[in-house]
TrEMBL record:
InterPro entries xref list: Phage_phiKZ_Orf197
Transmembrane portions of the chain: 37-53, 59-78, 87-107, 122-143, 172-192, 212-232
Biological source species: Belliella filtrata
Domain of life: Bacteria
Pfam families documented for this protein: DUF3307
Record protein name field: DUF3307 domain-containing protein
Species classification: Bacteria, Pseudomonadati, Bacteroidota, Cytophagia, Cytophagales
Keywords, in A-Z order: Membrane, Transmembrane, Transmembrane helix
Amino acid sequence: MIIIIKLLLAHFIGDFAFQPRSWVEEKEKRKAKSPKLYLHILIHGGLIMLLLWEWEVWPLVLILMGLHGIIDVVKLYAQKKKNKTSWFIMDQVLHLASIFGIWYIIYQPAIDFISLLQDPMVWIYMLAILIVTLVTGIMMQVFMHKWAKSLQEGNESSLKNAGKYIGILERLLVLTFIIIGRWEGVGFLLAAKSVFRFGDLKESKDRKLTEYILIGTLISFGIAIGVGLILVQLQNIL
């Protein structure tokens, strides 16, 4: 397991810490003709060798360097301005998949995927992740639609019933923090609200935007905390 952790560490250091913005821009401009592309690939190989610190891993290094280069070249030629974000995500997914795949093929770790898929906690975690990502995002759009429209029209100084809902949400969150014994969460909530309310006092014309952001933040926090509590309870039961 330590090997896969080191491989992931090498990837993230090479792709984010050791890749300046100027390199990214040059690669996007010159694509496969950019020397920075090949320097970037060599840095990845060097990081893997450095972290694993074994000469015997050179086949693994060469394979991962080759796959990294292929993925980067495909991304450089396929991405456009309108799909740049999508290709950034796809690029990282492919890199991680190649790392896990090569690691599994070479080291053949004792992982029983059948037993893993039969573990109810695996499916519960998958459900929780789905809820706090895609499902919550859609729910937020539905919940915030009427206020988003009011915010765009700019015909009122405050969102309708915003104060009432903010109060309900913050009290529910405070109650939750107290029940689970995380009093620091109450302090964080108060600090966050104070920052937003300072904006109200400083720029009264931005009050609707402040309330809109605050409601969205509290709803998002509330859903995540609720799912987390359910997850913890199910984990204890199972």
